[in-house]
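re: that chain from earlier
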Amino acid sequence: MSPGPVRLGLRENIAQFSLLVGINAFVGAMVGLERSTLSLVGEADFGLTSSAAVLSFIVAFGLAKSFTNLGAGVFAERLGRRRLLIVGWGLALPVPLMIGLAPSWSWVVAANVLLGVNQGLAWSMTVVMKIDLVGPERRGLALGLNESAGYGGVAVAAALSGWLATEFAARDVLVVGGAAIALTALVISVLFVRDTAGHMALEQSRNDPDANEAAPALRQAFPDATYRHPVLRSCSQAGLVNNLNDALAWGLVPLFLAANGASVSQIGLVAGLYPAVWGIGQILTGHWSDRVGRKPLIVSGMLVQAAALALLAGSEGAVGVAAVSAVLLGAGTALVYPTLIAAISDAVSPIARAPTVGVYRFWRDMGYVAGGLIAGLVADAIDFSAAIALVAALTAASGVWVALDMSERRRPSLATARRAG
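^ sequence. v structure.
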């Protein structure tokens, strides 16, 4: 059966949109499996004593995901969104096997390189494809639903893997869960997902004042999103710091709680609360940002995250306080996460969207690298609380940066802005 006419809108594309929401839940679940257990596996199964050594898997993941995001944004226009999504899931298949058979921690680190590539391709493409489908009117809501599904998957998998690890070996939980998720998502992507390049082209023809505008090359998109464009550079640094504190929550918080006597199931509860609040909250905050603007939510979200981390730093590892901190951290992240990508999409033309979002996601996921290094090194040099407090201060500074540097003015394209200048 041939596809129907190309139309923009959430309601008009509800079947494909819903399918991509479901796939992104699988993307999140692949990472969620590691959230409550992998740091503990490093200590228990491989005898690692250094926090920096344990967190090396997050550094490897962040590097791989960052550079994959950069390439995905460019190759989405050349190879197609759907093809990159399928390649991403194909590369996820070896990850659980490598973790299960790992004779040394270096195998786990290598598996997380592949996981980073999977996340960079699969999550980037679900983001871009949903933006393509809905058009400009309900972009914040679309991104809220996308990120909600992804981090809902993280939350469920984190809590479930922590609970199952009390009954079964943690590595076995990761292997079985990871294999089931990767295979299911690959089959669904191959059989049911359709490419959205036609939707992007339709939006471009309707909204681009320069009908001849081409997708920017990486040498143009990278400096635009890194330092030239005030909105884009504000979003890029905020995204980096957001994932810096997410790396801390992923890798260091389980070690911090375990060192203060928390059980694996309690760690799983805290690890699951944070992305659960984050995931659910994004449905509301994405839609809210369509109404009130992006900047207020980004600034307030970064400051709420900073407050949550400050509370955690002073908690001495008490599980109840850590749970409250996880809820606040999730709420702050929900304000920020979909809003940043919506702000990026507002600032560029449809043809420039994929490359620019790719650069933003490069810098955002470099936060995992920075977070893994900073948290691990400071925890080894001083203690866990000092590492958490430092990240809280960096998060607050990022919110102040956005408040001072980011403009709410939306522009149809960077090319238009250059011509006007």
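DSSP finds 18 helices and no strands in the chain.
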